[in-house]
Design brief:
single chain; 278 residues; alpha+beta; D-amino Acid Aminotransferase, Chain A, domain 1; D-amino Acid Aminotransferase, Chain A, domain 2; 2 domains; nine-stranded mixed sheet; 7 helices; binds N-(5'-phosphopyridoxyl)-D-alanine
Length: 278
């Protein structure tokens, strides 16, 4: 596998960053994940826009223009012969002596690699996803795609322990989002519900794409918070992310959702979204 580090393409096993990198020492950096399906990047402009916004919010200069980012992504994809999978970008504040403050002229560290992985033909689809709920232990600026992901790692470990594939995080009695996805329910009144954007959640690129499809289909989208109790009474539940696209949820904390099978609306939105990418 070929990786990209600060201007150089090299074999992944030879790629390294200094111990004094602030991403390593402080989690002082941000990341993005874009899916590649049939050789096409999914909603990449939106991911690069969010990358720019995350950097701006924490005061790291964006090292490249969108065109340059895209060119590097495409070269990495070509060098890896990748047709389907994920492309990961990380930007940290850079390398300096360990100190909470950093020199003003620091050069950001840029790391990129690809992961071959079935995105479209996800084996988990036929059965649907089991989800557990966990307290949301994260900081108060989840709209920034920070590499400080300890709470998410712990949530995913708890999910795996319970043989579930995702954890929905709870704060103040309502679901914020998945550990690495946006949470949705479809109510008995056929409302598609996801919570409004704020500092509490990541503005999902897939969320926005699904929202557009919901509007095109003249379905009702309602932006509001929802509780676990409401999710358990829902007709369907699903989550969205670059890596899972749209994934039906069949149980929460061991309780079946709807029929206990992947919901037809979730599956339809998934196929509609994939169609827009090809
Ligand atoms: N996760 N919420 C959180 C906390 C996320 O980490 C993600 C994405 C999303 C969905 O965002 P998008 O639709 O733009 O991928 C929501 C990525 C895939 C990850 O961490 O691997």
């Amino acid at each position: 596998r070929i990786a990209y580090v600060n201007g150089t393409f090299l074999p992944l096993e030879e790629a390294s960053i200094p111990v004094m990198d602030r991403g390593f020492l402080f989690g002082d950096g941000i990341y993005e994940v874009t899916a590649l399906i049939e050789g096409r990047l999914a909603d990449n402009e939106a991911h690069l826009q969010r990358l720019d916004r995350s950097l701006r919010e924490i005061g790291i200069p964006n090292p490249y223009s969108p065109a340059k980012w895209t060119a590097i992504q495409n070269e990495l994809i070509t060098r890896n012969g990748l047709l389907e999978g994920l492309i990961y970008i990380e930007v940290t504040r850079g390398v300096s002596e360990r100190d909470f403050l950093s020199p003003a002229d620091l050069k950001p560290t840029v790391v990129m690699f690809t992961q071959a992985k079935p995105v479209r033909a996800n084996a988990a689809l036929s059965k649907g996803a089991d989800v557990i709920t966990v307290p949301d232990l994260r900081w108060a600026r989840r709209d920034i795609k920070s590499v400080s992901l300890l709470a998410q790692v712990l949530a995913k470990r708890a999910a795996a322990e319970a043989s579930a594939s995702e954890a929905w995080m709870i704060e103040d009695g309502v679901i914020t989002e998945g550990a690495s996805s946006t949470a949705f329910i479809v109510t008995q009144a056929d409302e598609i519900v996801s919570r409004p954007l704020s500092h509490a959640v990541l503005p999902g690129v897939t969320r926005r794409a699904v929202l557009r499809l919901v509007e095109e289909k003249n379905l009702t989208f309602v932006e509001r918070t929802f509780t676990v109790e409401e999710a358990l009474r829902a007709r369907e539940a699903f989550f969205t992310s670059a890596s899972t696209i749209v994934m039906p949820v069949v149980s929460i904390d061991g309780q079946p959702i709807g029929t206990g099978k992947p919901g037809p609306l979730a599956l339809e939105l998934r196929e509609l979204y994939i169609k827009t990418l090809l």
